[in-house]
Design brief:
Strand content: under 5%
Number of domains: 2
Oligomer: single chain
Radius of gyration: 32 Å
Shape: flat
Distance between the termini: 84 Å
Helix content: over 70%
Number of helices: 4
Structural class: mainly alpha
CATH topology of the largest domain: Non-ribosomal Peptide Synthetase Peptidyl Carrier Protein, Chain A
CATH architecture of the largest domain: Orthogonal Bundle
Strand order of the largest sheet: 1-2
Number of strands: 2
Length: 152
């Protein structure tokens, strides 16, 4: 009976070690690949999108509607030969896109996020150069080979 307990105990320990190894690898993957940063980016993007949509629908569209004589720009259409073109909805989507692009651009410039990639590339290049120099220093110099005798 002790043999069965020993085998069971060893199997449980091995399973636990494997689980810890995989969990550790997964956490390392999350840290190295910036998964958390990506998730935060998606959450912020959703919030910005919602805010910009509200800004366009609740403020810009009514103002444009007043200027164009329409109460709701999104419902503005044009009838032509039995076909309805919903140009107002398209203009609203175009305004949404433009405002979101502007918010992202300004956010990048204000937070200087455009420099992050440049700085990272510079650090990576410096690290690569240092590694090459270190590798070259580690290699022993090969003695010059004596000239081989010429065959006659």
């Amino acid at each position: 009976m002790d043999i069965v307990k020993d085998i069971s105990k060893k199997a449980a320990e091995q399973a636990q070690q494997q689980a810890q190894k995989h969990a550790s690898g997964f956490m390392q993957f999350i840290r190295e690949q910036g998964v958390v940063t990506l998730a935060v980016g998606f959450i912020l993007a959703a919030a910005v999108t919602k805010t910009v949509n509200s800004f366009v629908v609740d403020i810009i569209n009514p103002l444009l509607g007043l200027l164009l004589g329409k109460v709701n720009l999104s419902s503005a259409t044009w009838q032509m030969a039995g076909v309805t073109l919903a140009w107002g909805n398209f203009v609203s989507a175009l305004i949404d896109f433009t405002v979101i692009a502007l918010v992202v651009y300004v956010g990048f410039k204000v937070l200087k996020l455009d420099r992050v990639d440049i700085d990272k590339k510079k650090r990576d290049k410096e690290a690569e150069t240092a590694a090459k120099k270190e590798e070259a220093a580690d290699k022993p110099e090969k003695p010059d080979k004596p000239a081989s005798p010429k065959k006659k």
